[in-house]
């Protein structure tokens, strides 16, 4: 079922709401330092689709922990890039203020429900991650709650590829009834308008100087933006 070893990394993320005018200005300022990532460069409009299935319990603990701004919190989700049922990521994402720690595995969509039920091989080379993922879902009574989808344009550092700048547009959400990323029918609700773009700056350690200069020159103010919380509210689930 599992096709590659787990991926694990830690980084800092800062998020901003911007408009089209700021997007164009930022892209011009990024050009000497960054280039489109391999996913964006393949697309005619430089955007690829991300879809995520978020887990929470009946008390919506993950939602309220985020809303209350807890310094340390965790989310579990299943993510895909484009409609690719053979490349879905099980993800455990932990956050400590602006620092983000993420670990994930690739699985096929058809096995997601089996993982959530603990009906997988817990003795193989992927046992540590699978046991941890299943333990968290079972211990906190997590179930699939909401689908979130949007278009992303991603840039990576020319000399330091770990530096990432992403622009997310057209965030939409739908409540879900099971562990399926691509149900036959999805009633999408708009989360962000056409003119609203979410800018994310992602880097290890200190923010690179050129990003600091962009933030200062354009007078950008980062915000605790949560696509998950915004989507839960848009779907009127709490």
Oligomer: single chain
Largest sheet: 8 strands, antiparallel, barrel
> Beta-sheet strand percentage?
35-45%
Give Rg in angstroms: 18 Å
Instruction: Please tell me the CATH architecture by its name.
Output: Alpha-Beta Barrel
What's the CATH first level?
Alpha Beta
Overall 3D shape: globular
CATH topology group: mRNA Triphosphatase Cet1, Chain A
Summarize the structure.
The protein has helices at 20-30, 61-67, 112-116, 127-139, 209-217, 227-234; strands at residues 7-18, 34-36, 48-56, 72-81, 88-96, 99-107, 143-157, 164-175, 189-190, 197-203.
Description:
- The protein starts with 6 loop residues before the first strand and ends with a helix.
- The chain has helices spanning 20-30, 61-67, 112-116, 127-139, 209-217, 227-234, and strands at residues 7-18, 34-36, 48-56, 72-81, 88-96, 99-107, 143-157, 164-175, 189-190, 197-203.
- The model is unreliable at 1-6 (pLDDT under 50).
- The chain is of the alpha+beta class and 238 residues long.
- It contains 6 helices and 10 strands, in the order βαββαβββααββββαα.
């Amino acid at each position: 079922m599992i096709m590659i070893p787990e991926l694990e990394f830690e980084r800092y993320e800062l998020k901003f709401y911007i408009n089209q005018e700021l997007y164009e200005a930022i892209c011009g300022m990024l050009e000497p330092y960054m280039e489109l990532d391999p996913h964006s460069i393949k697309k005619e409009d430089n955007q690829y689709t991300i879809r995520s299935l978020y887990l929470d319990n009946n008390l919506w603990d993950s939602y309220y922990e985020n809303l209350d701004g807890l310094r340390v919190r965790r989310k579990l989700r299943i993510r895909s890039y484009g409609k690719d049922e053979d490349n879905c990521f099980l993800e455990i994402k932990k956050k400590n203020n602006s620092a983000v720690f993420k670990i994930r595995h690739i699985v096929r969509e058809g096995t997601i429900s089996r993982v959530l039920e603990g009906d997988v091989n817990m003795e193989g080379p992927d046992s540590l991650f699978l046991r941890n993922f299943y333990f968290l879902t079972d211990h906190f009574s997590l179930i699939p709650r909401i689908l979130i989808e949007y278009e992303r344009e991603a840039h990576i550092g020319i000399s330091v590829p770990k530096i990432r700048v992403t622009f997310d547009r057209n965030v939409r959400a739908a409540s879900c009834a099971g562990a399926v990323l691509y149900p036959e029918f999805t009633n999408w609700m708009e989360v962000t308008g056409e003119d609203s773009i979410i800018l994310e700056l992602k880097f290890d350690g200190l923010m690179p100087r050129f990003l600091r200069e962009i933030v200062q020159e354009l007078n950008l103010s980062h915000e605790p933006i949560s696509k998950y919380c915004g989507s839960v509210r848009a779907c009127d689930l709490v």
